[in-house]
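User: quick one, fold this
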Amino acid sequence: MRGLVTAWRAGCGLLALGTVAVAYAFRRPGLDAVDFWSYWTNLSNCLGGLVLLAGALPGRRGGAALDRLRGAAALYLAITGVVYALLLGGEVANWPGWVQHRLMPVALPLDWLLFTPVRRLPPWRTLLAWLAVPLGYLGYVLAHGARTRWYPYPFLNADRYGYPAVAGYALLLAGIFTAAAAALLVWADLRRRLLRLGKRLAGVPSWVRETS
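Assistant:
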């Protein structure tokens, strides 16, 4: 089982990073490195690929820092898929787009759901840490856009739609981020409790389980 998990993570991690590299190499003319890395899609896929590869390394499973990063990557990529489908039309024109907007937004949350952390993560501290990154990203996009008049996503274009409209989208996304993050943490805690209960029951004689 461990070998299959390692192969899954290594394969998906290499695919994610390779796709980001291809997207960067064949980016459209005029899109410089700063603008390329201003896309949430590229950032989340890069983080997801690195986290999966780290999880595939021998002796790197179960660390608290890696667990927090795994959850963050699962959250950010899930939001990548949801936002692309709901706010950006959801059309995929090539295989890098399919990997970044279809495959990885499923692979990372699935990795979290199937292989939850062994140790309990502090819920409020973890939630706030996960949400701090998209909040910082929003601040960066607005500051960068105010200076360059370029925005990576149309719904964040304050020059075109105004800050009140952008604030509305930001609140919507904040609600989605918070709900998804809470769901990931609740699932991890619930599955850990169920696994612990299963281990306890496995150590109890069958006649005790049948009469309890």
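User: anything notable?
Assistant: Residues 206-212 have pLDDT under 50 and may be disordered.
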